[in-house]
Amino acid sequence: MTLTDHIDTGMKHFMDWLSLSAALGSIMGWLPEIGAFLPIVWYGIKIYETDTIQKLLGRKGASDDYDLHD
Known about the structure:
By secondary structure, the protein is mainly alpha-helical.
Protein backbone atom coordinates (compact mmCIF):
# COMPACT_ATOMS: atom_id res chain seq x y z
CA MET A 1 0.00 0.00 0.00
CA THR A 2 1.35 3.41 -0.97
CA LEU A 3 0.71 6.86 0.40
CA THR A 4 -1.71 7.76 -2.40
CA ASP A 5 -3.66 4.48 -2.67
CA HIS A 6 -6.69 6.04 -0.99
CA ILE A 7 -6.89 8.80 -3.66
CA ASP A 8 -8.82 7.97 -6.83
CA THR A 9 -7.20 8.23 -10.26
CA GLY A 10 -9.10 11.35 -11.29
CA MET A 11 -7.90 13.24 -8.24
CA LYS A 12 -4.31 12.09 -8.88
CA HIS A 13 -4.48 13.44 -12.43
CA PHE A 14 -5.95 16.71 -11.15
CA MET A 15 -3.13 17.04 -8.59
CA ASP A 16 -0.56 16.32 -11.31
CA TRP A 17 -1.91 19.11 -13.49
CA LEU A 18 -2.26 21.47 -10.54
CA SER A 19 1.32 20.75 -9.49
CA LEU A 20 2.63 21.25 -13.01
CA SER A 21 0.74 24.56 -13.28
CA ALA A 22 2.13 25.72 -9.94
CA ALA A 23 5.68 24.77 -10.94
CA LEU A 24 5.41 26.58 -14.27
CA GLY A 25 3.82 29.58 -12.55
CA SER A 26 6.73 29.75 -10.15
CA ILE A 27 9.27 29.51 -12.96
CA MET A 28 7.52 32.26 -14.90
CA GLY A 29 7.46 34.45 -11.79
CA TRP A 30 3.69 34.47 -11.49
CA LEU A 31 3.64 32.72 -8.12
CA PRO A 32 5.85 33.23 -5.08
CA GLU A 33 8.59 30.76 -4.27
CA ILE A 34 6.33 28.80 -1.92
CA GLY A 35 4.33 27.81 -4.99
CA ALA A 36 7.29 25.76 -6.19
CA PHE A 37 7.46 23.82 -2.91
CA LEU A 38 4.11 22.05 -3.27
CA PRO A 39 4.82 20.47 -6.67
CA ILE A 40 8.22 19.32 -5.41
CA VAL A 41 6.53 17.56 -2.48
CA TRP A 42 3.82 16.00 -4.69
CA TYR A 43 6.25 14.70 -7.32
CA GLY A 44 8.64 13.58 -4.59
CA ILE A 45 5.91 11.38 -3.11
CA LYS A 46 5.05 9.98 -6.56
CA ILE A 47 8.71 9.22 -7.32
CA TYR A 48 9.20 7.62 -3.90
CA GLU A 49 6.26 5.28 -4.55
CA THR A 50 7.54 3.99 -7.90
CA ASP A 51 8.49 0.31 -8.11
CA THR A 52 12.07 1.20 -9.04
CA ILE A 53 12.68 3.33 -5.94
CA GLN A 54 10.93 0.81 -3.70
CA LYS A 55 13.17 -1.96 -5.04
CA LEU A 56 16.29 0.19 -4.54
CA LEU A 57 15.24 0.78 -0.95
CA GLY A 58 14.63 -2.94 -0.45
CA ARG A 59 10.95 -2.46 0.33
CA LYS A 60 9.72 -4.42 -2.67
CA GLY A 61 11.46 -7.60 -3.77
CA ALA A 62 11.27 -9.81 -6.82
CA SER A 63 8.69 -11.99 -5.08
CA ASP A 64 6.31 -9.00 -4.99
CA ASP A 65 6.34 -8.72 -8.79
CA TYR A 66 4.53 -11.97 -9.46
CA ASP A 67 1.52 -13.55 -7.85
CA LEU A 68 2.54 -17.17 -7.46
CA HIS A 69 -0.51 -18.12 -5.39
CA ASP A 70 -3.70 -19.16 -7.18
